[in-house]
Amino acid sequence: MSYLPLEQSELLNDLTALLRIPSISTLPERRGDVARAAEFVRGQLQAAGLETCRLIEGEGNPLVYGEWLGAPGKPTLLAYGHYDVQPPDPLDEWKSPPFEPEIRGDDIFARGASDDKGQTLILIKAAAGLMKRDGRLPVNVRFLIEGEEEVGGEHISRFIASGSELARADAVVICDTEMFAPELPTICVGLRGIVYGELLVAGAAQDLHSGVYGGAAPNPIQALAEILCALKDRDGRIQIPGFTDRVRPPTPEEYEAWSRLPFDENEYREKEVGARELVGEPGYSVFERTWARPTLEVHGIRGGFTGEGAKTVIPARALAKISMRLVGDQKPAEASAQFQAAVERACPRGVTAEWKAIHSGEPSLIDPANPFIRSSAEAMEQVFGKPTVYIRSGGSIPIVGLFDKHLGIPSVLMGFGLPDDKIHAPNEKLHLPNFFRGIEAIARYFEIVGRG
Ligand code: BES
Ligand code: MN
Ligand code: MN
């Protein structure tokens, strides 16, 4: 690293050590690992030369805090990331084990490499490099790293809503998104919101012989399928009354910017999605479908007999994990209520359907004209040598909406992931050149913000 006095081998050692910790926030049996990851991150903040590095304990997984406030009169940035990861399964599809990081070519493969341990470390190492070089930072920085982003981020949400002094800042900087294409500096200025939950359909009091009772007994799996089909038609149009009322179309400027993005739909279909055909609402482009329209997706269905061989049974219950992505002025609570009402209407005779929301987050849009975004575009351009593009993403980072709502500050989403990083999927990786250039870009960003 020429710009900062950091050794690539040491950076890789720290990255590897963090990636080895299976901090899967949704699995209760991984609590110990989650705690270990938090402590590791705390150690990294401390080693970077930050002050007051500590865990903020509360209900849920610890938040990790560290600050450097030695630049009075300069802006304060809140650097956010998450040290928790998604479950690695299906395990047998990994070429190397998910928690034994392996470098192949220019990539490091492990669960969390891109989302978000590698990218969180980018933020920390940028501060470490500047501290090592100058003994100080050009801006004030507070780090707030959470351990339950992948499960809805309850702890940090309460912390931010409580109005803690420790979150006082002028802007947030986050590395937890993707570049639009390799080498193309990208800032994400829109995220979808989410409502995630489970739908439980119940029929008979217990499982029944499907020959003896079939024809008279209700089948919850069939009922679940009917409900799902009633909620979204074959063209992908959501049929929940009122659901799209608060959707807002992108601005003409946004459409114009999107039209200039280097995008080949066929290549996207083949290389990234890997499907025969793309689907979705007629009349909308892929960008609109994935960035600016709401969705309803089923993530898993449980019920009946799915083992080897055959068993003739009518199950008593069926369950589906479902989420809706939200855009514009859609509100999670309202969307969830609309969903529930539509389920009740669609529920066939003989069964009951119960909706239980698990977590949610609001959509967010960030004004690209904001000075903190402008500075970030400048930093990206300096490091990547190309004009920065502004995109939205279909993913969700619920805390971004809360930073806006409770602190009134914008979030600068400077992502260094790539579209083929396979986040949440087997063989997740981080492109190492992006790791190193990301560190440089964030350090530049700190300098530009500090320059005023
Ligand atoms: N970092 C992702 C979100 C993301 C990915 C934003 C790619 C932009 C580009 C984040 O960790 C994530 O996966 N969020 C969850 C939401 C959460 C409430 C479960 C998601 O989007 O499913
Ligand atoms: Mn993430
Ligand atoms: Mn994620």
Give the overall shape: globular
Low-confidence stretches: none
Please, what is the oligomeric state?
single chain
- Sheet/helix structural class: alpha+beta
Give an account of the 3D structure.
There is one protein chain. This protein has 452 residues and is an alpha+beta fold. The protein has two domains: 8-191 and 363-451, Aminopeptidase (3-Layer(aba) Sandwich), CATH 3.40.630.10; 193-247 and 294-360, Alpha-Beta Plaits (2-Layer Sandwich), CATH 3.30.70. It is 34% helix and 22% strand. The protein is built from twelve helices and 18 strands. The protein has helices at 8-19, 31-47, 113-134, 154-161, 220-231, 252-259, 265-273, 286-292, 332-346, 371-384, 398-407, 432-451, and strands spanning 51-56, 63-68, 76-82, 102-104, 107-109, 140-146, 171-174, 186-191, 193-202, 208-209, 295-303, 313-314, 317-326, 352-361, 364-365, 389-393, 411-414, 429-431. Strands 1, 2, 3, 6, 7, 8, 15, 16 and 17 form a nine-stranded mixed β-sheet that branches. Strands 11-13-9-14 form a four-stranded antiparallel β-sheet. A three-stranded antiparallel β-sheet has the order 4-5-18. A hairpin with a 2-residue loop joins strand 4 and strand 5. Helix 5 (220-231) crosses helix 9. The radius of gyration is 23 Å and the shape is globular. It starts with 7 loop residues before the first helix and ends with a helix. 45% of the residues are buried. The model has no long low-confidence stretch (mean pLDDT 97).
